[in-house]
Amino acid sequence: DGQSCTLAPAACSDSPQSWVSADGYVCADYVAKDWCTPRGGYGSGWESEYGTFDDWAVNGNSAVTACCGCGGGQDLTTAYDCGSEIDGDVWTLVRHMKGYGNWGPWNDNLAGTAVLGVQGDAHSSHDWTIQWSAPDQFLFTFADCSHWLIAEAWQVNGEFYGLAKRTIAKSSEQDSSYQAEWYNREDVIYDPWVSVRDHGECGSYGDGAMLYGEDTGDHSDGENAKNSHGGVNIYIRDQSTTTTTSATSATSTSSTTTS
User: Does the pLDDT of residue 180 top 70, yes or no?
Assistant: First the structure.
């Protein structure tokens, strides 16, 4: 598809992640057009007739508060759970793989039966996992949220499959559903292998967006990317939770409008 497989730096994330200015420009535009400097000043491309950054702010966020390239964004060196901002904030963090070494030392095929380590947070320095049962959806994300994907649970581990197309509901690369080739073989302990794109597309796993693997030992596919982005977090949610949250928001909006 011609897209680069290079991953974003791990130290900062635009916040809100999908920020757009009042006149339709995104963070990448501000950087590419030299409208801002990395320290939050006006760049060489910013003309006086454009006014101020605040003139183009949305909901109180201008480029210098929202964009990493303009001195803003979310500092990911602090213990911030950016997964909580992805697609609705109705997720439960159930599994964390630390930002060094191999993939997590469990092989329950994402069934939620393994228990390991002291339950920590999204940036813990140790692997940990708790038990869960039959979620509707998984969210897989690097700890810095530079790459993530959401998929129905049955697409991930509802059946065994070799290299096969599986449906991703949405991801850091695309806001609508598409398919990518993953593995979930019955006799391979490090499956399932879950990635933002086809498992082998990027050629070098260290540069690809592989977001999940299991008890790998010395089988290191994707671990360089995992480790350079602070580790990997796995979240679950039920569709009923999403539906209830949406319905509550709709009711609240309706009540506000009526009053």
Answer: yes
